[in-house]
Specification:
The protein has helices spanning 26-45, 47-50, 53-78, 85-104, 107-111. It is mainly α.
Length: 114
């Protein structure tokens, strides 16, 4: 043994993937297949709108917010509780921002490039 009791070295088996190969779970494979199918459908249905860079940029602008919300939800879950107020507050903010963007923003703001 190399210093740690109870730990056995991992041996390669016949069913383990070789070097450079990644074993993909069946659930992950199904989700990736669904993602590819949805991307294909939307590209076929809306080729001029869905394949623009602004569409992907809009999606990427939402990812940091989702990460912060995931961290905010993780804290109560780690401590043994469940805090649904975070989700309710986020939904209220999303509704407020949607209202502001549709009714209060000037029309010139929509025409500006990012």
């Amino acid at each position: 043994m190399s210093g740690v009791q109870g730990v056995k070295p991992v041996q390669a088996s016949a069913e383990s993937p070789g070097r450079g190969h990644v074993r993909v779970d069946a659930n992950l494979r199904g989700l990736l297949l669904l993602l590819g199918a949805l991307l294909g459908i939307f590209i076929l249905l809306m080729p001029d709108a869905f394949t623009r860079g602004a569409t992907y940029q809009g999606m990427m602008l939402q990812i940091p917010e989702l990460g912060i919300l995931a961290l905010a939800m993780a804290l109560p879950l780690i401590s043994g509780g469940l805090n649904l107020a975070i989700i309710a507050t986020t939904n209220q903010i999303a509704l407020l921002m949607g209202w502001i963007l549709t009714t209060q923003m000037p029309a010139e703001a929509a025409e500006s490039d990012l």
